[in-house]
Write a structure and sequence with these properties.
This protein is of the alpha/beta class. It has six helices and ten strands. 28% of the residues lie in helices and 34% in strands. The chain starts with a helix and ends with a strand.
Length: 208
């Protein structure tokens, strides 16, 4: 996966443009309401979303791609970018008040999705809040490619995507306190000036 993303960031640069996702604005307001000071952002890419958060919070941003990190440190000088897989984070006493995880959880198989959620929740302080987004099973790309697991499709060689139903998403976070889920449409403004619309789901919750 690292090689895939390194190659994409080398060839495409700021792949999804400069504007942050609308969801990060919503998450920021929620974090402010909950007196958040520290935020962890897994799968941070080149900092498109972290930049909005680091203006207010202390942000640690995890990213696997070294090419993305190079871009990110230029784009968002306030966040602390860490080149690592979220799966390989060491067990430490450091806990975060909040996690913002955009468009990451749907990139994995069932077992790794479970590991990702568990690893993220481990990083949260008690009553820490989380905000995750993922592909919806109502998206137009649902069903494209070879189905490798239930609702998970290999739409490019070596690249998979899982499409979450409402129940599927809630079940993945059932060990936490789920506050809200919802659906939205979001336009991705790619670096080559093309725009695609995706249907996403989000989930907001709190660690017990």
């Amino acid at each position: 996966m690292k090689e895939y993303w390194d190659n994409r960031f080398i060839s495409e640069g700021l792949i999804w443009g400069e504007r942050p996702s609308e969801t990060v604005y919503a998450a920021k307001e929620i974090f402010l309401e909950n007196d958040v000071r520290t935020v962890l952002v897994p799968g941070a890419g080149y900092g498109r979303n972290t930049k909005l958060l680091s203006d207010t919070f202390q942000v640690d941003a995890i990213e696997l791609s070294s090419e993305a990190i190079t871009l990110a440190r230029l784009w968002d000088s306030k966040s602390n970018f860490i080149e690592q897989s979220i799966f390989d984070l060491p067990d430490t006493n450091k806990k975060y008040d909040a996690i913002f995880c955009y468009g990451l959880i749907h990139l994995f198989t069932e077992s790794d999705r479970a590991k990702l959620v568990n690893k993220c929740l481990e990083q949260l302080a008690q009553k820490g809040v989380y905000y995750f987004t993922c592909f919806s099973d109502e998206d137009a790309a649902y069903g494209i490619g070879k189905e490798v697991e239930y609702n998970t499709f290999e739409y490019k060689r070596g690249k998979i995507a899982h499409f979450f139903s409402e129940d599927d998403l809630r079940n993945r976070f059932k060990e936490s306190k789920i506050i809200e889920t919802g659906s939205l449409e979001e336009n991705f403004e790619y670096a080559n000036d093309t725009i695609k619309t995706y249907k996403l789901r989000y989930i907001l919750g709190m660690k017990h």
